[in-house]
Amino acid sequence: MPRALLLDLDDTLFDRGAAFAAWLAQRLGRAPEPGELAAFREIDQRGRRPRDEFAADAARLGVTVEPARFPLELAEHVEPEAGAREALERLAARLRVGVVTNGGAAQRIKLARLGLEGVVHAVFVSAELGAAKPAAAIFAHALGWTGAAPHEVLFAGDDPIADLAPAAAHGMVAVWRVRGEWPRWLAPPAHRIHSVAALEELCGCAPPAADARDAGAGPGDAARGARA
Ligand SMILES: [Mg+2]
């Protein structure tokens, strides 16, 4: 059983794509057309574009975005994932649980909306630390906080490049919150999960998951990891 669990926030503990769609609907004052939503998703790239570049492209699509306000606006649309808080409460009773996230003040607002600020034991926000994923410093800082050996720490995230490659490079166990495709050129993650709740089984803290997607996926999935 691992001794600690480190978690990315956006698109790992909640569906950022859904929050983005809700944000766009509010800004437009109506539901976006499918093509319109796709165009905005393209310029946002799941939050990986620099915000000033996103804002410039959004203006061309007819929506004014204030780069500094955008994360705070998005945070207002964050919705909890079913079962996630309860699973993390149980995990936090057994393991050290921390969040490692890129961003600023909006990240703590998101955690509060998810009901997680009093659940996890520590929150590492890049703007507060002066280091952002994938920089080694933020991983080393969080790993040091766990007090555990790297192989005793699970790092769960959706981003293969910013979350999981550096976590694995530090010797931590990479758990991919599946979003999109895993890059073919990158060594595969140790485990894959399709829900936050699947972490319980992966950590040996719960009976086999009822979630068929998590139990029935291919090699390296959560169920296999729990039996290994
Ligand atoms: Mg993420």
Any chance you could write out the topology, listing elements then pairs?
Elements: E1 4-7, H1 16-28, H2 34-44, H3 51-60, H4 70-75, H5 84-92, E2 96-101, H6 105-113, E3 122-125, H7 126-129, H8 136-146, E4 153-157, H9 160-169, E5 173-177, E6 191-193, H10 198-202, H11 212-216, H12 222-227
The protein binds magnesium ion.
Descriptive notes:
There is one protein chain. This protein is an alpha/beta fold. It folds into two domains: 4-15 and 81-227, 3-Layer(aba) Sandwich (Rossmann fold), CATH 3.40.50; 16-75, no CATH class. It contains twelve helices and six strands. It has helices spanning 16-28, 34-44, 51-60, 70-75, 84-92, 105-113, 126-129, 136-146, 160-169, 198-202, 212-216, 222-227; strands at residues 4-7, 96-101, 122-125, 153-157, 173-177, 191-193. Strands 3-2-1-4-5-6 form a six-stranded parallel sheet, with helices on both faces. α9 links the parallel β4 (153-157) and β5. The longest helix is centred in the N-terminal third of the chain and has 13 residues, at 16-28. The chain is globular and about 50 Å long. It starts with a strand and ends with a helix. The site of magnesium ion has 7 residues, from loops. Magnesium ion binds next to loops.
State the total count of DSSP E strands.
Answer: 6
Bound molecules: magnesium ion
Q: State the CATH topology of the largest domain.
A: Rossmann fold
CATH class of the largest domain: Alpha Beta
Question: Structural class from helices and strands?
Answer: alpha/beta
What's the alpha carbon Rg, rounded to whole Å?
Answer: 17 Å
- State the major sheet: 6 strands, parallel
Coarse morphology: globular
- Provide the low-confidence segments as ranges: 215-228
Number of helices: 12
The percentage of residues in β strands lies in 5-15%
Give the fraction of residues assigned to helices.
40-55%
Strand order of the largest sheet: 3-2-1-4-5-6
Q: What's the architecture of the largest domain in CATH terms? A: 3-Layer(aba) Sandwich
Instruction: Return the string of H and E elements.
Output: EHHHHHEHEHHEHEEHHH
Mean pLDDT across all residues, rounded? 92
Query: CATH superfamily of the largest domain, please?
Result: HAD superfamily/HAD-like
- The N- to C-terminal Cα distance equals 11 Å
Number of domains: 2
